[in-house]
Amino acid sequence: MARRKKLYEGKAKILYEGPKSDTLVQYFKDDATAFNAQKKATLDGKGVLNNRISEFVMLRLAEIGIPTHFIERLNMREQLIKKVEIIPLEVICRNVAAGTMSKRLGIEEGETLPRSIVEFCLKRDDLGDPLIAEEHIHAFGWASQAEVDEIIGMTLRINDYLQGMFAGIGIRLIDFKIEFGRYPVADGHQILLADEISPDSCRLWDRETNKKLDKDRFRRDLGDVTEAYQEVASRLGIIKENPATPPNLSVISNND
User: Helix 46-63 crosses helix 145-167 at what angle (to 10 degrees)?
Assistant: First the structure.
């Protein structure tokens, strides 16, 4: 597909206009950021891996009835997606204490939570994406009560599926962050899962060793970030097993 007009550039992705007015092209960058972009780096191949992993997950979620913005993968770094109005909320689902939750509540990292917990943050980079309550969402009109209820229900369904999917390949789903958008339909709009689901947006630990296979390797200077993402892709069957292949990702399957 020929390169089109750039509409938005974020920390990890670029959005271009799509071939139709209700579509966009989502491009996955190799850029890595942490701590509200105070820490930055370029990790060769990260965008390719996130593109493929997110595609894989979105397709599996669609199979269980989760509506998503994903239409098709165009190439190694780009997806064709539905154009949605992003709801200005980051939705976090936590199964195990980690990251900011451990710091906020004084819970030891790695402690399994009594139940899965859904949290909301306001999508405002300039404010550090602050944690908010449902009351804030309703008071400021960021989403209706019906939308919030639908988002929570979908998030918990996504969590149930992803926990089982990752458990099947020896990975614990610690937590994940997702976003939702409004897609126009004949009688109003539909809430769709948007953005991405990848090791950039999930905490993934090996079930046996607790090795981190996600963006925390970058946040905490653990090294081997791209290699960890490759391991996730390999376990999911996206990358063919070939330990001798360097991280140029030439063994990614499905004929790009």
Answer: 110
